[in-house]
Design goal:
By secondary structure, this protein is α+β, with helices and mostly antiparallel strands. It has 2 domains: 9-111, Ribosomal Protein L22, Chain A; 112-193, Ribosomal Protein L22, Chain A (Alpha-Beta Complex), CATH 3.90.470. It is 38% helix and 25% strand. The protein has helices at residues 22-31, 34-42, 46-67, 127-134, 137-144, 148-168, and strands at residues 2-5, 10-16, 75-77, 85-88, 94-100, 103-109, 114-120, 174-178, 183-189. A hairpin with a 7-residue loop joins β3 and β4 (85-88). It is globular, with a radius of gyration of 17 Å. 33% of the residues are buried.
Length: 203
C-alpha cells in the first residue's frame, strides 16, 4: 500500500486487492469493531464483503500512517447509510473511501472534507444508455459526438465527479481527475486543491 500527499495536505491510497491473500484478510478482520464485524457478516456477495473489509483496512493503514498509530488503534463507528465516523483518536483526519471491482481507495486530509470516487472503466457497458439516465441532454449530445474511446473516458470522468461531489456532501471548491490505466479517479475537496495528488499504486 502506497500513499502520496499533495501540497494541500490531501493524500490518496490505492490498493489492487488481487494480491491480498487469506492470511491478510484474517488479520484485517481482527481490526474490525463489533458493529463493523456484524455488518461484514451480513454481506451476501463475496466481492462486496471483500470490498468492505479492504476499505476499512486501507483506511486504518492510511490513517495510522498519517497519525503515527497502529491500524487497530483507529476506531470507527458504523452509521447506516453513511460513511463511518472516526471515534478515536480525536482530531484525526477527514476521509473518503471508494471501491470498484478489485480496486479499493481512500483519501485523507487533515484540513478539508473530501469526496473520492473510483470506477473501473468498462468498455462493455453501454455508456450512452447510462448517460441518458444520469445526465442532461447537453451532456448526452456531447458524448454522442465523441469517438468510442474518448466517450468512455468522458462518461466515467463525469460519473466519478458526480459521485465524488455527492460523497463530499457540500459545495466542492476543487475537483481533480487523476490519470490511471484502468480507473476513473476523481477527488473533490471542500477547500481549494492547488495541485492534484500524485497517484501511486503498489507493485
Amino acid at each position: 500500500m502506497t500513499s502520496t500527499t499533495s501540497a494541500t495536505g490531501a493524500s490518496i491510497w490505492l490498493l489492487d486487492s488481487r494480491g491480498i491473500d487469506a492470511a491478510q484478510l484474517g488479520q484485517y478482520e481482527a481490526w474490525l469493531g463489533a458493529a463493523e464485524t456484524a455488518r461484514y457478516a451480513r454481506f451476501a456477495r463475496p466481492l462486496r464483503r471483500r470490498q468492505f473489509l479492504l476499505g476499512r483496512a486501507l483506511l486504518r493503514v492510511a490513517m495510522g500512517t498519517l497519525l503515527d498509530l497502529p491500524p487497530p488503534a483507529i476506531v470507527l463507528e458504523e452509521r447506516p447509510g453513511q460513511a463511518p465516523l472516526l471515534l478515536s483518536p480525536e482530531g484525526g483526519a477527514h476521509f473518503s473511501i471508494s471501491h470498484s471491482g478489485h480496486w479499493v481507495a481512500c483519501a485523507l486530509s487533515r484540513t478539508a472534507p473530501l469526496g473520492l470516487d473510483i470506477e473501473v472503466c468498462d468498455p462493455r457497458r453501454d455508456v450512452l444508455a447510462l448517460a441518458r439516465q444520469a445526465f442532461g441532454a447537453e451532456v448526452v449530445a456531447e458524448l454522442e459526438g465523441m469517438a468510442l474511446e474518448a466517450r468512455l473516458a468522458a462518461f466515467y470522468r463525469r460519473w466519478s465527479e458526480a459521485e465524488a461531489r455527492y460523497k463530499l456532501g457540500m459545495d466542492a471548491a476543487s475537483c481533480v481527475t487523476l490519470p490511471h490505466a484502468e480507473l476513473s479517479i476523481v477527488l473533490c475537496s471542500a477547500a481549494p486543491l492547488a495541485h492534484a495528488p500524485v497517484l501511486m499504486v503498489p507493485d
